[in-house]
UniProtKB/TrEMBL annotation, chain A:
Protein name, as recorded: malate dehydrogenase
CDD domains (UniProt xref): MDH_glyoxysomal_mitochondrial
Residues at the active site: H190 (proton acceptor)
Ranges for domain Lactate/malate dehydrogenase N-terminal: 16-158
GO-annotated molecular function: L-malate dehydrogenase (NAD+) activity
UniProt-annotated binding residues for NAD(+): G21, A22, G23, G24, G25, I26, G27, D47, N107, I130, T131, N132, M241
Residues reported in the UniProt entry to bind substrate: R94, R100, N132, R166
InterPro entries in UniProt: L-lactate/malate_DH, Lactate/malate_DH_C, Lactate/malate_DH_N, Lactate_DH/Glyco_Ohase_4_C, Malate_DH_type1, NAD(P)-bd_dom_sf
Native source organism of the sequence: Volvox carteri f. nagariensis
A biological process from GO: carboxylic acid metabolic process
Keyword tRNA processing carried by entry: no
Domain Lactate/malate dehydrogenase C-terminal stretches: 160-324
Automatic annotation (TrEMBL), chain B:
UniProt domain Lactate/malate dehydrogenase C-terminal: residue ranges: 167-333
Name used for this protein in its record: Malate dehydrogenase
Family label: Belongs to the LDH/MDH superfamily. MDH type 1 family.
EC number per UniProt: 1.1.1.37
UniProt enzyme class: oxidoreductase
Source organism per UniProt: Volvox carteri f. nagariensis
Chemical reaction(s) catalysed: (S)-malate + NAD(+) = oxaloacetate + NADH + H(+)
NAD found in the keyword field: yes
Length: 332, 342
């Protein structure tokens, strides 16, 4: 965040950000960071319960961001109307022993309902989905918007920035580097082995032995689980997730404002890997959302093998989301 | 890459990195205020080490916060056995520990539980980091700061220039509310808030607000604004309907105060702030929040309150008794010693 604050948008646009799930473990600290963000003009907070208190709390912070609160499905339209960016952390977190996929049954329906409302009330907005399992909830969002005739692949983004933040932290710590200088691209998806850090492409360049590479990759892949275990039933990553999501939201707003060279890794509709319709890689963010999906660059042997071996899991999780959305469509 | 390295070397010569960064502890790091506060402090460029202490849940909070890609090294500490290690070497200790209000409660209603918590933590500070700056958030601040002072005094380590009750949220609220009224950016608003940190002991000096309040504001409107600032905490307790009190705005304000302290410690002075400190600013009131100048050693100067108008003078007189009562309650609690807690 410190390095980024030196970027100044050439245009100061009014930007409304809607936060769906604002009363939750991620939503609250994320709402605070967005209330502190200089590129946000209006922050519309939505949840099914508890959001009036969060809004009253935040409204006392002396920043110019206007905070509004919307409770329950009847008020969702008001929250979304006119939004430039919709950020969705709503849903339940993992407990020890659960995979992100175990959340599917509860969170799939939540995401679909919220995305339907967004498609109806702010079809021009960029949607950023944090709700797990991201590998499935992003396809759910896309299919839902397709069925409504408002899908724009530039505007549906699965947030994977926490994997990048974790990779940057762990690599910087391991090599004694200043964290704000380190950038590790992370590709693939956002669950276990589908998280693939490209250590060979780290800037500044770092070298790892094969054993170190494997250990560091697994550490990045398991970091979310480590936090779930450490919280012993009290939740999953909330504060670091809020930090990473706020970073992604700021990059998105900078892109919308026409700032050049805003790159982030994100899980988006993609042709980068054959037969894998959604994939995380570096994307260039621009005035309409994703301006360009970058390629993977050069992978070393370890990364190439890891990529091949995770594709079946990623494809299955994507398909699960697609199937859910298509069946739900039929039912509706 | 070579060019980048050269540029970085030149840049660091022109803008030398801070030579010293500080160790900061949050006592109560897993609570409603402690968690977002820990997140904000992890982002501070002045902090090299962040100790997160609580009686439960700190391993999870520390694991979470430790993943943020900022320089401060985070360690979690769990339970009284680990409190000494959490505090060793700390330059600044921030204490949000304790229970929050529920609807219908005053800050004083928290006294029975929070007084004992603050006493225990102050004893640990006295033993393990006696020269640290101590910033107390735990309510009722009007009483918990005197409690901490008595504990530190009895241990022979009290430095009144380094003990603060955090009142920044009252200032932040006043700035936000006045900005709404005058249509300004709240970051361009300044207004002193002095006195204490509960109800009528919170004294916003609206007559000194910059930009000034519109001349068209009636006396009733000014009074209503003053009452709104005084009751803002209660406003949030009501809105949260039992789910707690201000957490996010309190974390924001406390992080702002911590930043002021760390800048002052770095020698980036002078740093002006408001905080509830041991004071001779008002005869008869041993503790009072005034405008302060902070320097490397703590409070360097307590500024006079300046001119106040008739409404402010009236409120000032009206609140003295309550503030003094809260101070005495804290002092007497601390004087009774540990046995009284059981």
């Amino acid at each position: 965040m410190v390095a980024r604050s030196s970027r100044r948008s050439l245009r100061c646009e009014a930007r409304k950000v809607a936060l769906l799930g604002a009363g939750g473990g991620i939503g609250q600290p994320l709402a605070l960071l967005l209330k502190m963000n200089k590129f946000v003009t209006e922050l519309a907070l939505y949840d099914i319960v508890g959001v009036a208190g969060v809004a009253a709390d935040l409204s006392h912070c002396n920043t110019p961001v206007k905070v509004t609160a919307f409770t329950g499905p009847e008020e969702l339209a008001g929250c979304l109307s006119g939004a430039d960016l919709v950020v969705i952390p709503a849903g339940v977190p993992r407990k020890p022993g659960m995979t992100r996929d175990d959340l599917f049954n509860t969170n799939a329906g939540i995401v679909q309902a919220l995305v339907q409302a967004a498609g109806k009330n702010c079809p021009q907005a960029v949607l950023e989905i944090i709700t797990n399992p991201v590998n499935s909830t992003v396809p759910i969002a896309a299919e839902t918007l397709k069925a409504m005739g408002v899908y724009d692949p530039k505007k549906v983004i699965g947030v994977t920035s926490l994997d990048v933040v974790r990779a940057n932290t762990f690599v910087a710590e391991a090599r004694g580097l200043d964290m704000k200088d380190v950038d590790v691209p992370v590709i693939g998806g956002h669950a276990g082995a589908t998280i693939l850090p490209l250590l060979s492409q780290t800037t500044p360049a770092v070298t790892f032995t094969e054993a170190e590479k494997k250990a560091m990759t697994e550490k990045i892949q398991n970091a979310g689980t480590v936090v779930v275990e450490a919280k012993a039933g009290k939740g999953s990553a909330t504060l670091s997730m809020a930090y990473a999501a706020a970073r992604m939201a700021e990059s998105t707003l900078l892109g919308l404002n026409g700032e050049p060279n805003i790159y982030e890794c994100a899980f988006v509709q993609s042709e980068v890997v054959a037969d894998v319709p959604y994939f995380a890689s570096k994307v260039l963010l621009g005035p309409h959302g994703v301006a360009k999906v970058m390629g993977l660059g050069e992978l070393d042997a370890f990364e190439t093998a890891a990529l091949q071996s995770m594709l079946p899991q990623l494809k299955a999780e994507i398909q699960k989301g697609v199937d859910f959305a298509k069946n739900a469509k039929v039912a509706a | 890459m070579a060019a980048l390295n050269r540029i970085q070397k030149i840049a660091s010569h022109l803008d030398p990195p801070k030579l010293f960064k500080f160790k900061v502890a949050v006592l109560g790091a897993a609570g409603g205020i402690g968690q977002p506060l820990s997140m904000l402090l992890k982002m501070s460029p002045y902090i090299s080490e962040l100790s997160l202490y609580d009686v439960a849940n700190t391993p999870g909070v520390a694991a979470d916060v430790s993943h943020m890609s900022t320089a401060a090294r985070v360690k979690g500490y769990l339970g009284p056995d680990q409190l000494p290690a959490a505090l060793a070497g700390c330059h600044l200790v921030i204490i949000p520990a304790g229970v929050p209000r529920k609807p219908g409660m005053t800050r004083d209603d928290l006294f029975n539980i929070n007084a004992g918590i603050v006493r225990t933590l102050a004893e640990a500070v006295a033993a393990h980091c006696p020269t640290a700056w101590v910033a107390i958030i735990s309510n009722p601040v009007n009483s918990t700061v005197p409690i901490a002072a008595e504990v530190l005094q009895r241990a022979g380590v009290l430095n009144p220039a380094r003990l603060f009750g955090v009142t920044t949220l009252d200032v932040v609220r006043a700035e936000a509310f006045i900005a709404e009224i005058v249509g300004a950016d709240p970051r361009d608003v300044s207004v002193p808030v002095v006195g204490g940190h509960a109800g009528i002991t919170i004294l916003p000096l609206l007559s000194q607000a910059r930009p000034a309040l519109p001349a068209s504001m009636t006396a009733e409107q000014r009074k209503a604004l003053m009452v709104r600032i005084q009751d803002a905490g209660t406003e949030v307790v009501q809105a949260k309907a039992g789910a707690g009190s201000a957490t996010l705005s309190m974390a924001y304000a406390a992080a702002r105060f911590a930043d002021s302290c760390l800048r002052a410690m770095s020698g980036e002075g002078p740093v002006n702030e408001y905080a509830y400190v041991r004071s001779s600013a008002v005869p008869g009131l041993p503790y009072f929040s005034s405008p302060l100048r902070l320097g490397r050693g703590g409070v360097e100067e307590i500024f006079p309150l300046g001119a106040v108008d008739a409404m402010e003078q009236e409120n000032f007189e009206a609140m003295k008794a309550e503030l003094l009562g809260s101070i005495k309650k804290g002092e007497e609690f601390a004087a009774r010693g540990p046995a009284a807690a059981k």
